[in-house]
Amino acid sequence: MISFLFRLTNSYESEHGFRPNMLYISPSHFDKLRVDLANINGLDNLVQFLGMEIVIDDEIAHPQVAFSDVNWRHSQAV
Fold first, then answer.
1. Dist. CA 65–CA 16, nearest whole Å
2. Which of 27, 41, 14 is nearest to 1 (CA)?
3. CA-to-CA distance for 30 and 33, rounded, in angstroms?
4. Nearest-CA neighbor of 65 among 40, 7, 27, 38?
5. Can you give the pLDDT at residue 70?
6. How far apart are CA 40 and CA 52, in angstroms?
7. Cα–Cα distance, 60 to 78 (Å, whole number)
8. Alpha carbon distances (Å) from 55 to 14, 32, 42, 76
9. Are 65 and 8 in contact (CB under 8 A)?
10. At what angle do helices 27-36 and 2-16 cross, to 10 degrees?
11. Where along the chain do its domains lie?
């Protein structure tokens, strides 16, 4: 999973000229990512390691990356 995300991130950066900061992923792919990165404890540490906020959604068939200028740590759901 981590190698797929690495390629996806590099492809995005090559195409757009900047790195993505959002990862959209399904719960099952998130579980695989957690297995690959089992030595990283806690979601905050995982987000920091990846350099991307993580959005987990059942509707996501394949992991996707994007860029958002919204500071999600200071946002709230309404």
1. 12
2. 27
3. 5
4. 7
5. 78
6. 15
7. 22
8. 22, 15, 15, 14
9. yes
10. 110
11. 2-74
Cβ–Cβ under 8 Å, residues 69 and 56: no
* Residue appearing with tokens 């958002």: 68
Q: Alpha carbon of 18 to those of 15, 38, 43, 52, 66: distances in Å?
A: 8, 28, 24, 13, 10
Token output for 7: 């390629």
Q: Which amino acid is at 33?
A: L
Is the pTM higher than 0.90?
Answer: no
**Tokens for 43?**
């979601």
SS3 of residue 34 by DSSP: helix
pLDDT at 73: 61
Check pLDDT > 70 for residue 67: yes
pLDDT digits (tens, 9 = 90+) for 6-61: 999 999 999 999 999 999 999 999 999 999 999 999 999 999 999 999 999 999 99
